[in-house]
Amino acid sequence: MKNLYLILFILPLIGFGQQRVLGDELNTKNNKVFYNGHLFSGTEYHNYDNGDLLMEINYVDGVQNGVQKMYHPNGQIAQNHLYKNGQIVDGTYVDLFPNGEKNGVFIYKNGKLNGKGLVYYESGQLWRETLWENGIKISEIEFPIEENEIKKTEKEKIIKYSESKGEKVEKKIETYEEIKDENGRLILKKIIKSYNANGRKISETYFNVKDEKDGNHTEWFDNGELKQKGQFKNGKEFGVWTTYYSNGQKFEEFIYKFDNGRRECCVWLKYWDEYGNRLN
């Protein structure tokens, strides 16, 4: 990392050629940049409408090499990225707001976004956290501006009062956890937990990056006994679900299955009475 910062500091001093050309005067052919019919070596630049500098890009023999810089209208550096042979160099890059505060932190590997990316409000508070794999966004969560404390892998926020299946829900809490998916990849999952007026948790549901119910779903009675458990997949009930009496005894088991791509609800498997005696 230190070597990357050293290179970023030295390269602008060395330069790649004496030519400094406005971007509109350059042409691109077969992924290479030309100026007056020749492969371009030098600095391409772009300006704001008022003439202030917007961007600088360095080339060697028509291929992007060296520092690429973007500027805010006040002259503050917005981006400072390093390229080699047309590809962004592996490393961690920090983008900046006009006031010099961090705007975003991103990791590149093999020319693509990889790992955790962070985007901030101008106040310095975390706004968005994403996970990337080979340039593909695996998951994303956002943190409201009114929150003051952000945990590393978990965040809580109070959501408005609501009703849930006839039971008064005093509040809902949204949390985020890093878990592994079926392919072993680390992803961020949103969990919404509902609580009654006495502060007892009465439901917990997992969501995917599309904000669809996806994963475990559990409900409890006000007395703390398990009420129902099952799973969602891409927003729909999936697999075996189990419901319970308020005394903790099983009531029924049923399964959601798919036939020719269409979900069928439900195939009942087992029944019990409130004393635990099997009824079928």
Topology:
Blueprint: H1 2-14, E1 19-22, E2 27-29, E3 32-35, E4 38-39, E5 42-47, E6 53-60, E7 63-71, E8 77-84, E9 87-88, E10 91-96, E11 102-109, E12 112-113, E13 115-120, E14 126-133, E15 136-142, E16 158-159, E17 162-164, E18 167-169, E19 171-180, E20 186-195, E21 201-207, E22 213-220, E23 226-233, E24 236-244, E25 250-259, E26 262-271
Parallel strand pairs: 1-5
Antiparallel strand pairs: 2-3, 3-4, 5-6, 6-7, 7-8, 8-9, 10-11, 11-12, 11-13, 13-14, 14-15, 16-19, 17-18, 19-20, 20-21, 21-22, 22-23, 23-24, 24-25, 25-26
Helix content: under 10%
Largest sheet: 9 strands, antiparallel
Helix segment tally: 1
If strands are numbered along the chain, what order do they take across the biggest sheet? 16-19-20-21-22-23-24-25-26
Number of strands: 26
What is the residue-mean pLDDT, rounded to a whole number?
78
Description of the structure:
The longest helix is centred in the first third of the chain and has 13 residues, at 2-14. Strands 16-19-20-21-22-23-24-25-26 form a 9-stranded antiparallel beta sheet, with no helix packed on it. It has a domain at 152-280. The protein has 1 helix and 26 strands. It is mainly beta and 280 residues long.
Describe this protein with a few key phrases.
280 residues; mainly beta; six-stranded mixed β-sheet; 26 strands
